[in-house]
Every structure is written in C-alpha cells, then in structure tokens.
TrEMBL record:
One of its GO terms (molecular function) is histidine-tRNA ligase activity. Signal peptide: none annotated. The keyword Ligase applies. This is Histidine--tRNA ligase. HAMAP family: His_tRNA_synth. The keyword Electron transport does not apply. It comes from Eiseniibacteriota bacterium. It is found in: Cytoplasm. Residues 21-334 form the Aminoacyl-transfer RNA synthetases class-II family profile domain. L-histidine binds at residues 81-83, 112, 126, 130, 257, 261-262. It catalyses: tRNA(His) + L-histidine + ATP = L-histidyl-tRNA(His) + AMP + diphosphate + H(+). InterPro entries: aa-tRNA-synth_II, aa-tRNA-synth_II/BPL/LPL, Anticodon-bd_dom_sf, His-tRNA-ligase, HisRS-like_core, HisRS/HisZ. GO terms for biological process: histidyl-tRNA aminoacylation. The lineage of its organism: Bacteria, Candidatus Eiseniibacteriota.
Length: 431
C-alpha cells in the first residue's frame, strides 16, 4: 500500500460512523435544551492565538502544535483546542455578544502532536461549551451540570467529577512561589521536563505524568490553602451550588489541567474503563482570557469532552450494519439502465413536496452488471424488495427478497410506490 492514514489519525467508517452521528445528534439535543447555540470556527487560526491563550510553557504549545506557514508567510496552526477560537469569534462577531450571557458550543476535530495510544490521537474530536459573561458560581454549576447532562443523555452515568480552584491573579502568584520553593527542595527527584518547568511555570509540574515525579507531586502544598478570601468564597459557593443540584464531586487539590488560561474553578470528569486516559473531558473558568484578547472584562467558563473517549466509555459495540437500501431497481437488460435510474428517483420521492416525500431508500446499479449479479447485490445491500425494469405489459414486477417470492404486479409507478410505502420498515436510528 502506497498511502496510509497519518500516524495518530483514524478513519471513521460506516458501521462506526452511525454511533458518531447518534452522539452528535444527542449532544445537539441537549445543547438546545440548555439554550446553547453552535459556532463553527475555522480549524486553523493564527499561531499567536494559541500561544497567547494556552500558554507558552504548556506542553501543547511547546511540543504539540501543528504549525505551518501559508504562501504569504503567515504562521498558522491547526487548532489544538476550541476555547481560544471561540473567544476570538466572540470578539470578532457582535451578534455573539448581544446577550450579556453568551451560551455557545462547538463540535469538531482538534490536532495535537502527541504520542498516540489508546484514547489518544493526533487528530481527535471534541464537543465543547462556553458560557461567557458571568463570574457567578451559578455559571460554574450550569457548566458542570450541562457536562453531566451530555454524558447522561448517551447513557454514561458512572462518572467521577473532580473539582479544584486555581485561584486568581491575587492569590496565584503566592501559590506559584510556594510551589516553586517546594519543588526546588526536591529538584533532584524531578524529571528533566519538570526541572525546566521549575524555572518557567512550576504549576505545570503538578500535571506531569512521569511516574517518578508522582511522589514529589503528592507532597506538594495544596492550592486550596493559598486561596484569597474571594476565591475561597467562590469555591465554597460552587460546591454549594453543585450539592444543590445533586451533583457529587471530589475535591482534587492537584488538578491543574494542561492550559494556562484557567482561573478559579477547574474540573474534570473521569469514567471507568478508559485505562490511563480516564478523563472524558474537563474545563474551567477563564475570567481573564477575553480581556487578554483585547475585549471587555468578560468572565467565562467552559468545558470540552473528547468524543473518541466518550464513545469508548459507553461501550465499543459497533452499531449493527443498517441495510443500505429498502428497494433495488434491477435493469433486466443493459438498455433499461436509464429507466431503472428514473424509477429509482421517482420511488425516493425527491420530486415530491417535502410532506409527500417518502423515506424509501432506493439503489440502482451503475456498473452495467447482469441481472443475476444485480440480484445478489440487492441481497447484500439488505434490500427488502427488488423491482424490475423494463415495465412489463401488466405492470412492474416486484420480488420479496427475503421470501424469494414474486408479488403481484403493480400497474403504475404511483401504485408501485404506495404499495412499497405501506410495507416499508421503519429506519432504525443507530446507536
Ligand atoms: P483538554 O482540551 O486537554 O482539556 O482535553 C479535553 C478532553 O479532550 C480530554 O479529557 C480528552 O477526552 C480529549 N482529548 C484531549 N487530548 C486528546 C487526544 N490527544 N486524543 C484523544 N482525546 C483527547
């Protein structure tokens, strides 16, 4: 084989794609219930957008960006995440700012140059939601509730919500220094990357996945002990709101997440059965990002869910291959090919007014195969009926494929169509 899908990418094929479509539909339904509207932003943006938001010292920016120059020498990057593009779109498009609480969501592929493994890809899909315009704990609670609602709607109930607060510009600097001092004492036990992080961004050490760093991280001071009174009160209020909504959570004082723009609340949702990559998704507050991008003071919070991981966690059973056709129109001789196509088109009802259209799925051969091979193909496609052209003296011949039995002839196209419609099986929605 000359070409292969690039490392870390995967094709989503028929048989599997039905589950993706199902997940997308369910998610859109839940988003609509909560009043969130979709934004489809470009999959590439100016490189600076990500460097300035995700943060120069994060793994994503240092090691994982797909960056290229276009023909005019502009530096562009395939988006590694969806929040920065959405904030950019929010600032660029006044209609998104009409409501002082903007509720937006996105769904689409993200790109990170990571080491591929189960549940980790270089192109992966995310569903994300953002609520811009409120600093209040109710917004945090709505976000986590919405996250849970998306999972609940696709049958994922057994999850763990991890919750932490990273403080804000008032209290984080002191915590950063406390943690720098702590890790400095244990520098000898840190991995090479963490030694670098000690100088650039010591908070990132808490996110290190290298096993030898784990014991040192476990002993690090808790950010929750350094929160200023306002951040501490916000955190308490978020916890009260979650309890009020009946959402259970665990406090995870070392949860920092891999992006620098977070302030105050951060959270992750983990599901069993995902192995090492157990986070289905996560999110947090980013009260400074809109302002950092030159916009008005706009506190905000969001989350993103990995679609591959979500599908993995709700079970890998592929949807039963849905039949591709209800009816196959078979040309008994090569000259009848066009008649077959015309009949197929009429049977699909596409020329009819929308309310009269029928969900008959009709296929016809375009490879000039013999009537015999068309019959075999019709069974393979799962067709319930075969209809033969040219039309005979007494009408269209119809065969029940499963019973292998010829039915009464149908004198006209209209009669043929209503006969088939009466007997069609409902198209099952995939799961
Ligand atoms: P993040 O944007 O890093 O907060 O990631 C949010 C979610 O996206 C994670 O919890 C995963 O479910 C998913 N995700 C992140 N990176 C990858 C990846 N490389 N491959 C597959 N899913 C990913």
């Amino acid at each position: 084989m000359k070409f292969q899908a690039p490392k870390g990418t995967h094709d989503i094929l028929p048989g599997e794609v039905e589950r993706w479509q199902w997940l997308e539909e369910r998610t859109r339904g839940v988003m609509a219930l909560y009043g969130y509207r979709e934004v489809r932003s470009p999959i590439f943006e100016s490189t600076d957008l990500f460097v300035r938001s995700v943060g120069e010292s994060t793994d994503i920016v240092r090691k994982e960006l797909y960056t290229f120059q276009d023909r005019k020498g502009r530096s562009l990057t395939l988006r590694p995440e969806g929040t920065a593009p959405l904030v950019r779109a929010f600032l660029e498009n006044a209609p998104l700012r009409e409501d002082s609480q903007a509720r937006l969501y996105y769904m689409g592929p993200m790109f990170r140059y990571e080491r591929p493994q189960a549940g980790r890809y270089r192109q992966f899909w995310q569903i994300g939601a953002e609520l811009l315009g409120s600093a209040r704990p109710e917004a945090d609670a709505e976000m986590i509730d919405l996250f849970r609602a998306v999972l609940h709607d696709v049958g994922l109930e057994e999850v763990t919500v991890l919750l932490n607060s990273l403080g804000d510009a008032t209290c984080r600097p002191a915590y950063r220094e406390a943690i720098r001092a702590y890790f400095k004492q244990h520098e000898g036990k840190l991995c090479g990357d963490c030694k670098e992080r000690l100088a650039t961004n010591p908070l990132r050490i808490l996110d290190c996945k290298v096993p030898s760093c784990a014991p040192v991280i476990a002993g690090a001071p808790s950010v929750l002990d350094s929160l200023c009174p306002e951040c501490a009160e916000h955190f308490e209020a978020v916890k009260r709101a979650l309890t009020g909504l009946g959402i259970r959570y665990e406090i995870a004082p070392r949860l920092v997440r891999g992006l620098d723009y977070y302030t105050r609340t951060v959270f992750e949702i983990h599901a069993a059965g995902l192995g090492a990559q157990s986070a289905v998704g996560g999110g947090g507050r980013y009260d400074q990002l809109v302002k950092d991008f030159g916009g008005p003071d706009t506190p905000a919070i969001g989350f993103s869910i990995g679609m591959e991981r979500l599908l993995l966690s709700i079970g890998a059973d592929a949807a039963p291959a849905a039949p591709q056709a209800d009816v196959v129109v078979i040309a008994l001789k090569p000259e009848a090919g066009i008649e077959a196509q015309a009949l197929a088109r009429t049977l699909r009802g596409q020329q009819e007014a929308p309310e009269r259209r029928s969900p008959l799925r009709v296929l016809t051969d375009v490879a000039g195969r013999s009537a015999n091979s068309q019959m075999k193909w019709a069974s393979k496609m799962g067709a319930k009926w075969a209809v033969f052209v040219p039309k005979g003296e007494d009408g269209y011949a119809v065969r029940d494929m499963a019973a292998g039995k010829d039915e009464q002839r149908q004198p006209s196209i209209e009669e043929l169509r209503s006969w088939l419609l009466k007997r069609r099986e409902p198209v099952e929605s995939a799961r």
